[in-house]
Amino acid sequence: TCINVFARYILHSSMPFVEELTCVGLVIISVGGAATAAKRGAHLGLTLFTDMMPKKAQIVCQIVGNLLGIAFGAVLVYFGFLMAQQEYVLGQKTTGMQWPEWLYGMWIPICGAVLIIRYLQLTAKELKINQNTNIITQNNQLHFHALAHSSCYSF
What we know:
This protein is mainly α. The protein is built from 5 helices and no strands.
C-alpha cells in the first residue's frame, strides 16, 4: 500500500496489482486471524453479565457463542463457495492483473472451514475442561465427606 501511494503521488501512476494483492491479503488475514483467535479463545467478549451468572450458565453461554461462530463459518463456506463458483463459471478476471477472480474468492470458504474447525476444537476443549473440573469437584467433595466421617469416629 505504501508503494502504491508513493507511485500515485510521486510517479503519477498507479500500480493496480498492489491494490488487488492488498485486498486478498486483508481477506485472508481477517478470516484467518478470526480462526486463530477462535482456537485460542481470544475473541473479544463482554463478560460483565456472564461473570455474574452461575458457572453452568457461563458454560452454556460459551457453548452458544461457539455454536454461533460455527454457524458464521458455515455461512462463509456456503456463500463463499457460491461466489467463487460464480466467478469461475463466468470467467471473471481482476482488473489489474487479469487473474481469475475465483483465485481471490476461494479463500473465503477455505477460511470459513478453518473457522468451523477452530470453533469445534474450542468447544471440545471447553467441554473437556468443564468435565475435568466437575470430576475434580466431585472427588474433592467425596474426599471431604470421607474426612468428615472418619474424624467423627476417631477419639
